[in-house]
Specification:
CATH class of the largest domain in chain A: Alpha Beta
CATH architecture of the largest domain in chain A: Alpha-Beta Complex
Distance between the termini of chain A: 80 Å
Structural class of chain A: alpha+beta
Shape of chain A: elongated
Strand content of chain A: 25-35%
Oligomer: homodimer
Number of helices of chain A: 5
Largest sheet of chain A: 7 strands, mixed
Helix content of chain A: 10-25%
Chain lengths: 250, 250
DNA sequence: ACAAAAGTGTTAAGACTACACCCATGA
DNA sequence: TCATGGGTGTAGTCTTAACACTTTTGT
């Protein structure tokens, strides 16, 4: 069987790109950075930012470069990880393109900078971007869906949620991230206990932040731990908040 | 911005390959399928099986084809998932090669069939293959290490361990998989309870299997569920059995 | 004083650990 | 009958869900 089958063509015209799914939490929704395409194909359509991998750079390196180009990121805390690769023939009308998708999580970032291929970069609510009629270019709808799923499950057993918070942050800031990404309300008391008792998740700064209303909240920094065990479960939501405390008393 | 910056070279000579990390549990160790390389570079060295992606096939498709070529796999239950991509310049002396690594899990497979590029395919204990002096070719040591980590953590929250068991199997067969891959002993009673009570993990066949010694064990099929929640924790090992505290009643 | 958010306390339900102990089979 | 692994029962501990309640601020 080593010589009879038609031998694979060892090299054919193929391009390698990296595409970035950059998430941030703005207001009360998860947002993804998109670019309006400045050239064909899909001219005028929306797509994930990305670009060609250069001959002399690694994949992570290319992703980091693109991230910098798109967001103007400076040294801020920011999570970047490889998501997976997509390479169906026909996913790009120009030819065979393999893309390595990366997932980036960051605090509400400054107004995005238009990248090389982009006429315009903008934040879109993920809920809208995923709708079929939004019409993301290429197979970017699938990539985005995979990224959302990855982000959701990573919140359960890791501490990456802190990547969405600019330091220092409060426990409520962090809870807000979970609530927005999971789309459920969490019990503030139990959430606090869980995250403050997970060693290395939060490091108190000793400072407090006073907001318009309510008691000032303690401020924290990320504590350096990567994982949470046991995980924080998504199932434990609290459906009807607003009923508030004091429904019955002794 | 579309014409001033030094434009990335949109296409340069790149090859795209898929590499497979095929795991099975044999005897009391996790094994990986390796091939002895039949040509340069690394002629005579050991490497993960893999091959070039063809112009007209998708990545998953290529992985499945390679898997079939290497193992002679027929319809058996078998898990295949993309692991991640590796593309550092210089990872292959022949030029720029991006490889998409896949993780495959299967029951103790038949004697492997030599693939196209392989002089010989063989099962190697993962513990040995990971040692630096084993000298896996290319960056296959890193890929293998990543695969082991992925497999270990997937056992925690999914039911993929069943992919290692030929059906029908016993609870002990399944526990053996966990013990070998995690490298710890698990309490048989508690393990049984956990897996039998996780809905959809195991489906009783009604049959039993009698072995040389001991009570016959009930036989099960995989039940179709993908995940386990809450997860089965690795921490819960049983280091020194027989220490005996006698707290339980008599 | 009141509203609102931060933060603490408490209880009951559920899951897990560490075992003791019983069951079914071959030798 | 004994050895061996299969399988059940259970007490104590740990974790969580639910929610009452106290604290601290701005208005």
């Amino acid at each position: 069987m080593t010589h009879s089958a038609p031998p694979a063509v060892p090299r054919f015209p193929v391009s390698v790109t990296v595409d970035l799914v950059i998430f941030t939490v703005r207001d009360d929704a998860l947002h993804v950075l998109l670019v309006e395409r400045g050239k064909e194909p899909f001219l005028g359509g929306s797509a994930l930012p990305g670009g060609y991998v250069r001959p002399d750079e690694g994949l992570d390196e290319a992703a980091l470069r693109e991230l910098r180009e798109e967001t103007g990121l400076d040294g801020g805390r920011l999570h970047l990880e490889q998501l997976r690769s997509y390479g169906d023939p026909g996913r790009d009308p120009r030819g065979r393109v393999i893309t390595v998708a990366y997932l980036a999580l960051g605090p509400d970032l400054p107004a995005p900078v238009a990248g090389t291929d982009a006429a315009r970069a903008f934040w879109a609510p993920v809920g809208e971007a995923l709708r079929a009629d939004f019409g993301l270019s290429f197979d970017h709808g699938s990539i985005l869906a995979d990224a959302v799923e990855r982000a959701r499950s990573k919140l359960e057993y890791t501490t990456v949620a802190t990547s969405f918070c600019r330091e220092p942050f409060t426990v409520s800031d962090l809870r807000h991230v979970y609530e927005v990404i999971w789309g459920i309300a969490l019990d503030p008391s139990n959430f606090r206990r869980k995250v403050t008792r997970t060693a290395g998740f939060l490091e108190p700064t000793g400072e407090r932040r006073t907001s318009e209303t309510g008691r000032p909240a303690a401020l924290y920094r990320f504590g350096g731990a990567a994982v949470m065990s046991p995980p924080l479960l998504r199932s434990g939501d609290i459906a009807g908040r607003g009923a508030g405390g004091g429904s019955g008393r002794g």
